[in-house]
Amino acid sequence: RTLRIGLIPGDGIGREVIPAGRRILEALPTSLGLKFSFVDLDAGWDTFKRTGTALPDQTVETLKKECDGALFGAVSSPITATKGYSSPIVALRKKLDLYANVRPVKSVAPTPCFPDPIDLVIVRENTEDLYVKEEKTYDGPNGKVAEAIKRITESASSRIATIAGEIALRRQRVRETTGETARKSMVTVTHKSNVMSQSDGLFRTTARKALEQAKFKDAGVIIDDQIVDSMAYKLFREPSFYDVIVAPNLYGDILSDAAAALVGSLGLVPSANVGDGFAIGEPCHGSAPDIEGKGIANPIATLRSVALMLEFMNQEEAAAKIYQAVDANLAEGKLLTPDMGGKAKTDEVVNDIIKRL
Amino acid sequence: RTLRIGLIPGDGIGREVIPAGRRILEALPTSLGLKFSFVDLDAGWDTFKRTGTALPDQTVETLKKECDGALFGAVSSPITATKGYSSPIVALRKKLDLYANVRPVKSVAPTPCFPDPIDLVIVRENTEDLYVKEEKTYDGPNGKVAEAIKRITESASSRIATIAGEIALRRQRVRETTGETARKSMVTVTHKSNVMSQSDGLFRTTARKALEQAKFKDAGVIIDDQIVDSMAYKLFREPSFYDVIVAPNLYGDILSDAAAALVGSLGLVPSANVGDGFAIGEPCHGSAPDIEGKGIANPIATLRSVALMLEFMNQEEAAAKIYQAVDANLAEGKLLTPDMGGKAKTDEVVNDIIKRL
Ligand SMILES: CC(C)[C@H](C(=O)O)[C@@H](O)C(=O)O
Ligand SMILES: CC(C)[C@H](C(=O)O)[C@@H](O)C(=O)O
């Protein structure tokens, strides 16, 4: 069977890294028995300027009807409210009900700051919280007042915690095959229920309850709890302590960027937007207009996002091949793009990784 | 004139560090011509358990009627919603209209992670955003739904940006006296207006406008802009780039804990809750029940909070004395509490710093 992959480069360096993602899929060894076909899809700021919408219906329809998975690059967005513009990735997550944003953060090698290996994954709720974007503005006694709704539901909190637990189990299985059995599985629930006792309180209690399911308990998954400010502190003080971190949308957004700094570059950090039966791989970095067109964007976040997408399409073997090839490139540390302190071009890094597949 | 200071130790190590704050005030050289009197005030979880309220009216009234400033230790809070309990520090900030939470973060010495000096201050809005705590819970089609209001007003955004600008000016004046004139003053406005275009959009445009006032412009204060996730990333990648960071309440909460990790220990980071004509010094750390009663809490966050409080009471000379004594203790690096990798007791550190006044 041929797997059909939607390619949504978006803006800026999205157009340089998404082709790299396509190349690695095409280069996978035939022994895996996988075939891919591709469809190019529009979204982003340039699309908005051209067509008046940042996410054409056709993009959504094609993904729904034809595709088995997709890759999303990055989009530029206007910093001030622009009539008719709305972030296409936020919209896609909701329209395809991609309820989990999975962001693994793994260190390359010990550094003076972080001598112990960092290997954690942030599982961010992807459909609600302040991202419902229900806002209003009115005139108050002393000028304008704007309000936004933060919405937390029991159902979304339960399913995000459940997938976080499943990711913890999967990581545990992988560690069993590699013999790293000393490490315990743990899911850390992040919240600010000391201030938002109802909304974050609902997230916390629901997530904990979901994690108490027998399948997690029997496997020994530890349930841990952190207030978000203290989480930001501890993430930097002892990152190797963490395994799986589950968080509402906005905290997950902030914490995953913070975690990316721990491993040296956002250019290394992948993500997958995951729903039931569909996944969109998406590098965590943005459209980076400052380096656009120079051919020096780090392709690794995208290549790892391809692997993540494959994992959630149940193609774990193909995923493992890509991870290994990327890790081997990083371990050698010779071909590095400028964000990593090197001089390599995007294509050179991709070529090197393809050779290692 | 005698300055009257309210002392609110709260719970846990709050009871160990607030006495240290009192001691340093009593030990200030008489040449400064300052006298202090003190009043002990209740608040916190123990107070709640004893009296049914975490913030007795008498505490608020005494602060309003008698005090020129105050010191707040830390409080323990229940992790699950507890009928009648509400965070006393959050309430105090609102009741006394202490609209700015000022959190300077300064590195002790170069480290392998951060070879360049870190010297920044986070100015956190202290009265609104999600901290208005207007929440509701209802039954939705798939279980419970909880909503919280994030409220941003033009007036609060404007005054917080104005005080951030004033802090930038004051820091510039201090640098002029010490000859560090190469460093430019900058205020970085943090927001997530790419998603919350109305609420965070209002914060961003209002803050920028306030910073364009002639007094800031003429002094050359640069206005910078960062989306909160990217701010968390950059704060770790290049902390020495930042001078003053202004943020809505919740982002300020998260970013200031994250920034504390940059300088090694939350036990070093002070804050002041500042209103017009009143300030409460408050160490950034919590009540730390794990080390309570051992006499090993780091007093430095509190001593620096005393200095910050004095600054906002226009006692800059006394403040400078405390900062210098603390810096001298840290520069020598011999008497360190366990959070800093040492073995010193709270009292030993306080004695050492008092000697250096
Ligand atoms: C571009 C922006 C809307 C987006 C988000 O906040 O989710 C980005 O920061 C991300 O993390 O994918
Ligand atoms: C204890 C808590 C309510 C408080 C806050 O969130 O403001 C604390 O984290 C702080 O930063 O002072």
Automatic annotation (TrEMBL), chains A, B:
It comes from the Eukaryota. Coiled coil: none annotated. SMART domains: Iso_dh. The keyword Manganese does not apply. Gene3D superfamilies: Isopropylmalate Dehydrogenase. The keyword Plastid does not apply. Residues 4-353 form the Isopropylmalate dehydrogenase-like domain. Belongs to the isocitrate and isopropylmalate dehydrogenases family. This is Isopropylmalate dehydrogenase-like domain-containing protein. It comes from Zasmidium cellare (Wine cellar mold).
